[in-house]
Amino acid sequence: MTDETLSQFRNELNSFFALVILNMVFGALAMAFGMQFMIASVMGFAEGEIPLNVLAGAISLAGFGLGLSWVLSSAKVLKGITGIRREYSECRDPVPAEILTGWIVRLTAQYRENRETIRRMTVICALGGCAFLAIGVLNLVQGITWTADPNASWIQALPFIAAGINLTIGLASLLFSGYFRRYSAAWDLRLDETARSETILERTLEQQ
Amino acid sequence: MAERRTPYEIYWEILVYCKAPRTFTAIINRCDLNSKTGQDYISFLGAKGYLSRTVEGEKSWYTTTEKAGEYLSLFTELYQKLFDTIPGFRL
Predict the structure, then answer these.
(1) How many C-beta neighbours within 10 Å does residue A116 have?
(2) What is the pTM of this model?
(3) How many C-beta atoms surround the C-beta of residue A26 within 10 A?
(4) Which sequence spans correspond to the domains of chain B?
(5) Which candidate in A197, A203, A204 is best for mutational testing of the B interface (most B CBs within 10 A)?
(6) Could you name the CATH architecture of B1-63?
């Protein structure tokens, strides 16, 4: 049983670690692009397209704020699992059942501790995803508007590049939100199971 | 580990750690407990006969007894089952 458990534990730990790291990277990108598009929108005021630029600037500001809370939430979750992951990588095979159980207890405690943060991350990822999809669509509109200009130059292609970046970040964020939802679903089931286990353990303690 | 643990998880940690004789200070440090709660847990386990106390001079040593074996193996089985029976998360 320990080998199968260990294999599933390892897969899950690595998958979650990769997800949180990627999430952090995308959070940082969200912050960076949010700031960049915000500045670009403010500079665009001079060109006269004020309503479109105000809208793009507001969405960019929201994207920057979401990116910041995205990175902070990810860092909090990451801090909890890096210790377990380090111990796991330093432990040589065969892993004793006791050590494995200890890691499971710690991961369970981590989830209890970070449950709300992970739920918040699911929402942040979804909101961030929608914000970046919206910016991407605005970029596409800008690009199409500018290409209609008969004096268009290669510079007019830049909104299409920005749209590509924003749409990619948006879609990846929505995907991450789905992954976090799946992770929460698996762990909520486990927490229900530990609550049932407590009854059994309590009965064992009472018998003696 | 200061995260949210249940009392049963803390009992298990103390019992596993005390398979070799340990002092009170070592237990509370390792299991991240304060003196008051540490004393409560140790007293409870002692009353159940899961921990034995040996006094050597000014120091007390706590050791897990054979009686705790059932609790330890049941706990291990239940917690490992969390990863065996529930479909896990994978990217």
Answers:
(1) 10
(2) 0.81
(3) 25
(4) 1-63
(5) A197
(6) Orthogonal Bundle (1.10)
Q: Which amino acid is at A189?
A: L
Q: How many CB pairs under 8 A join A and B?
A: 105
Q: Where are the domains of chain A?
A: 2-180
Find all residues with CB under 8 Å of B65, minimum gap 6, and list them. B49, B50, B51, B52
Count the neighbouring beta carbons within 10 Å of the beta carbon of residue A149: 9
Place of tokens 């059994």: A200
ipTM of predicted assembly, 2 dp? 0.89
Contacts of B49 in chain A (CB under 8 A): 208
Name, in order, each residue with C-beta under 8 angstroms of A62's C-beta and a sequence gap of 6 or more.
A34, A131
- The reply to whether residue A186 touches residue B86, judged by beta carbons under 8 angstroms, is yes
DSSP letter, residue B90: -
Mean pLDDT for each consecutive 10-residue tract of chain A (208 residues)? 79 87 84 82 72 78 82 85 88 85 91 87 85 87 81 77 89 89 90 91 84
How close, in Å, is residue A201 to chain B by CA atoms?
7
Q: Does B20 touch chain A (CB under 8 A)?
A: no
